[in-house]
Amino acid sequence: WPPAAEALALYDSFDAALIDPDRWFTFQGGVRVLESARRIAVVRQTGRNALRLEGRAYGRTSSDTGRERGFVGLTFFNPAAVTAIRAQVAVDEADVQGCASPGAGVTTAIARLAGDFFNTARPTPGSAVNDVFASIQVERAANSTDPLNVFRVRYLLFHCADAECFNGVVLDSQDLGPVRFRRNTPVTLLIQWDPENTRFVFQRDNQPPVFVPYGVPHAAPPGRPNQHVTIAHFVANCTVEPRPTASMNVFLSDLYVNESAAP
User: Fold this and answer.
1) How far apart are CA 29 and CA 108, in angstroms?
2) Band of the pLDDT at 3, cuts 50, 70, 90?
3) Distance between CA atoms of 151 and 147, rounded to whole angstroms?
4) What is the DSSP string of the chain?
5) Is the dihedral of CA 94, 38, 179, 227 positive or negative?
6) Per-residue pLDDT tens for 199-217?
7) Is the pLDDT of residue 2 over 80?
8) Exposure pattern of 12-39 as b/e (b: 16+ CB <10 Å)?
9) How far apart are the C-alpha atoms of 11 and 45, rounded to whole Å?
10) How many CB atoms lie within 10 A of CB 40?
11) What is the sign of the dihedral through the CA atoms of 223, 226, 227 and 230?
12) CB 89: neighbour CB atoms within 10 A?
């Protein structure tokens, strides 16, 4: 793993029967997430426990523009202390239905390690305005030409422009290549903020780490510290049938954070 300002330490192995309330808070949003679940489950292929996240969301039928957003996951008990997250992520199943109307948004299902890491100005408590959001994720888009069990690993660095970070400026983003999920074989993802070197570090499995510098100022802590592990649905709005939907079920295991944020 890449050199870091701080070593990583185990945060949760998910070996207990229930999600640990001293480590996690609920993370959920979006009024059109109609099915969701967070639970500890046994992965059949390994016999080991893992965190299972499940969700399904729908687009609106009154418009052919924009996308509905939905999130299901967990936020760290002390998110402001988390500057690095590493975990194994395995997609069990996913389904994405797009919209046939010209100009409609692209339906996408995502499993991600992410958070707001710092603010570039004067933060407003509880608001993401001017926060810098970073994510490493496994995603499947409705317009993908990949085989059905192939997903893409991508990182995103984003400067938030509104309270929910729905709008803003992409500082950097890159496709880290395809991953084929078979029998819940996981991909290992890492995201790490390295403020001493004014950069983020992203990595999948044992591939070379990607060092991403940023030119925006690190002025203050984030207004909305929300480091989390989630599945995220971005579902196209559509006036024609079939109605767009996105669903995803994933297993997360062996979750590490920077040492000072570990229990």
Assistant:
1) 16
2) very low
3) 8
4) ----SS-EEEEE---SSS--TTTEEEEEE-TTEEEEEEEEEE-TTT--EEEEEEEEEE--SS-SSSEEEEEEEEEESSGGG--EEEEEEEEEEEEEE---STTPPPPEEEEEEEEEEEESS-PPTT--TTEEEEEEEEEEETT--S-TTEEEEEEEEEEE-STTSSSEEEEEEEEEEEEE--TT--EEEEEEEEGGGTEEEEEETTSPPEEEE--S---B--SS---EEEEEEEEE--SSSSPPEEEEEEEEEEEEEEGGG--
5) positive
6) 999 999 999 999 999 999 9
7) no
8) bebeeeeeeeebbeebeebeebeebebe
9) 23
10) 15
11) negative
12) 29
Residue with tokens 């959920």: 28
Residue with the two structure tokens 């297993």 = 251
Do the beta carbons of residue 153 and residue 138 sit within 8 Å? Answer: yes
Amino acid identity at 65? T
Residues 139 and 176 sit within 8 Å (Cβ to Cβ): no
134 in Cβ contact with 159 (< 8 Å) = no
Which pLDDT tens digit goes with each residue over 28-80?
988 788 899 999 999 887 889 999 999 999 999 999 999 999 999 999 999 99
Q: Which two tokens stand for residue 140?
A: 């499947």
Q: What phi and psi, each to the nearest 5 degrees, are found at residue 36?
A: -155, 155
Structure tokens belonging to residue 6: 């701080």
